[in-house]
Amino acid sequence: MTAKVYVSGFGVFSAFGFGPEALFDGVFSGSPAFRMVTRFDVSHCRTGQAATYPEAAVSPPDAGPGLETVEVAIACGRQAIEMAGWRDPAELPVVLATKVRAPSVEPESPAEITERVADRLGLGRPRRTFVNACCAATNAIIHGAQLVRAGVTDAVLAGGAFLVDRQAFNLFDSAQALAADGQLRPFDQDRQGVLLGDGGAMLLLESGESIRARAAQPLVRLASWAMTNDAFHVAQPHAQGAGVAAAVTAALQRSGISPDQLTYINAHATGTPLNDAAEAAGLHTALGRHTEQVFVSGTKSTTGHALEASGALEAVITLLAMRSSTLPPTAGLRRPDTRHPLRHVSVPERVEVPYALSLNSSVGGVNAAILLAAA
Amino acid sequence: MTTLPAFELVTSAEVHAGPELPQLPGFMVSDFAPLAYAAVRECVGDARSGHLLKGIGDRGGIILGSQRFDTVTLELSVEHVNRGRVSPILFYQVVPTAVLGQIARDYRLTGPVSCVAVTGDARDEVLELARLLLADQGAEWVLGLTVKLDPDPAKAFATADLVRIAPGPADRKES
Q1: What is the per-residue pLDDT across A171-187, written as a single tens digit (0 to 9) for each?
Q2: Sequence ranges of chain A with CATH classification 3.40.47.10
Q3: Are the CB atoms for A296 and A267 separated by under 8 Å?
Q4: Which of B88, B92, B108 sits opposite A363 (nearest CB)?
């Protein structure tokens, strides 16, 4: 006996601010949130641009001076609990994706960050912390969903939080991964690389039985999920996107959904030459002739790459697309890469979305896919 | 609430840092990745010869647990950033999934790969995650790894456990 898993609430943060309205206004209008970084020195870097929140404009409830990752996770968690109408946080386990940093710059360990978030929100156990880079938040959501589906818990809070910091920015700069032109243009022939962005999201995942018992309303169903590895290279994706294809195929098969039923894919789409090409090739392998029917967008073009938190942020964007029947565009896409053509969303489109995928990939060949279905 | 099904611990290994720890090309600044890789080799056999993971492919997952992961490389990256000159190789070496990508490549494992940070016993937590992954049918075999670095390099160690779904009565009769 396995439980169906639904999303019954969420909280979200990005450079556009806290809450779904700010995110929708920015992402779904295709407005990039990139600006000059002021929280540390970037004068020696290829670019000074990142999607950082304007510090004066954002003040989450009970945040102290200067926004921290913990405050983002707490604010998003509180939003999710309130939206779901969940009464007792102590009944909720938590699964958080966060960064790994040197003790000299971050005395608190990653799991201690989760403990602090959980203590502040009065959450229960288990309290788990995923740190597998750009797939960490997707993994956190998948793990939370596994807890619900296996009947370990009725509901769980899962997601991630990330704020652009000096360490991440300089490491990406050193690898020449940042876009020197200050634009993140996924799938464009002229793409120059990635740009980082603040982001966070927490989703309240809940069994169908629990939702019925509470007379609550589900937002979407988390129909299936899959994680794979390229088994190819420590730092580069498989050129033909083998792991992406396997993750998409497995997620579809486990849900019983065929490629022609899929409407929308929120791609990982970092704007780097290798990643986007591999991802597009992988989508062709997985979807075959249906690739040309499925809408694809890369919303990091507006939010930037929230690294460990990106999977949660993009799951919420995908959820908003389904709930609003509006597809968010890939900003700055002028000359689409023609090697593996996709059906790009270049302007906001009104489309009914019964099924949608959110994809992420990370260093080490890790790939993760979650399939959302209309509730 | 449900109790997750049992799993079978197929084999385990523990390796310690020291002069005999083999180097791992591409990971030269810290013992973290060489320890993880050596624990896998000790547990399941060398990737270039007969090993226990042969043919497992997408049915095999990896979970790595640690408290602070590769603090040596992380601290080195801080030094580089403070000096204003960062080595590009640190870009991937600070990421915990990088060595798992190498293990997955060498042993041809194409299933799920996770990294979990812990406050307590990393091995217990990794095995608990493995139990859930097996129950969810995300994998049939899981390689559970832990790495603990220490200010005294001789005290650094890694563990590897290969687990699988506990065989049912029919499976036990056959074996």
Answers
A1: 999 999 999 999 999 99
A2: 5-214, 220-374
A3: yes
A4: B92
Contact B92 A132 (CB under 8 A): no
CA distance B12 to chain A (A): 23
Q: What ipTM was assigned to the predicted interfaces of this complex? A: 0.96
The nearest CA of chain B is from the CA of A289 a distance in Å of 25
Task: Provide CATH code, domain A5-214.
Answer: 3.40.47.10
Give the tens place of pLDDT for each residue, A143-173. 999 999 999 999 999 999 999 999 999 999 9
Summarised one tens digit per residue, pLDDT across range A183-218 is: 999 999 999 999 999 999 999 999 999 999 999 999
Cβ atoms < 10 Å from Cβ of B20:
8
Chain A residues in contact with B68 by the CB 8 A cut-off are: 100, 103, 109-110
Q: Residue A125 to residues A122, A144, A204, B155: CA-CA distances in angstroms?
A: 10, 12, 15, 31
Query: Inter-chain contact A102–B74, Cβ cutoff 8 Å?
Result: yes
Instruction: Select from 1.10.357.10, 3.30.499.10, 3.40.47.10, 3.10.129.10 the CATH code of A220-374.
Output: 3.40.47.10
Distance from CA of A40 to the nearest CA of B (A): 12
Size of interface A-B (CB pairs under 8 A): 187
Of A130, A170, A250, the CB nearest to B81: A170
In angstroms, the Cα distances linking A222 to A145, A250, A361 are: 8, 14, 19
Residues in chain A, total: 375
Domains by residue range for chain B, with CATH: 7-45+59-167 (3.40.47.10)
